[in-house]
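User: Can you predict the 3D structure for this chain?
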Amino acid sequence: MVRKVFKKKQTRQNSKIDKFIDKYNIPREYLSTNRKSVSTALFIGVFIGLIPMPFQMLLVLAMIPFFKFNVPLALSTVWLSNPLTMPFMYYIEYETGVFLLGLEPLNVELSLEWFEKNLSQIFIPLYVGTLFYAITLAPSIYYLVNWLWIHSVKTEQKKKTY
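Assistant: Here is the predicted structure, written as structure tokens:
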């Protein structure tokens, strides 16, 4: 099932996407949809997407020389922390950090003024919670996608033998 979603159709060689790739000399390994590139892209995208920082997409692009992964998938996965989900994600990460550090939680108000006033007090618990979720969720998603992909391949092979 996973492979069917990412299955590459090779019907037309001169499609608009192929022309764009050739025109700008984009390496095809950064667009490939094999098991390793997809799972690595999701790992990188989720890990960076959970970190409260500006320009998350630029950090994904900075990873290109070090890892081979599906860049569009990683860039889109970073958007799991979008303006609608950020307050909820960062609040949960802050509360988790407070719990892990054994600190007394602050009464959080959802206003920019409160955030600027209390940034020094919430910074460490927020990033401790962020690292907790990034270190647990990103590898979990990586291994889950790998397992699902392998399971899908084995299931397809069994269907072909019958």
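The helical segments are 2-5, 16-23, 35-49, 56-62, 71-78, 86-101, 112-161. Residues 2-156 form one domain.
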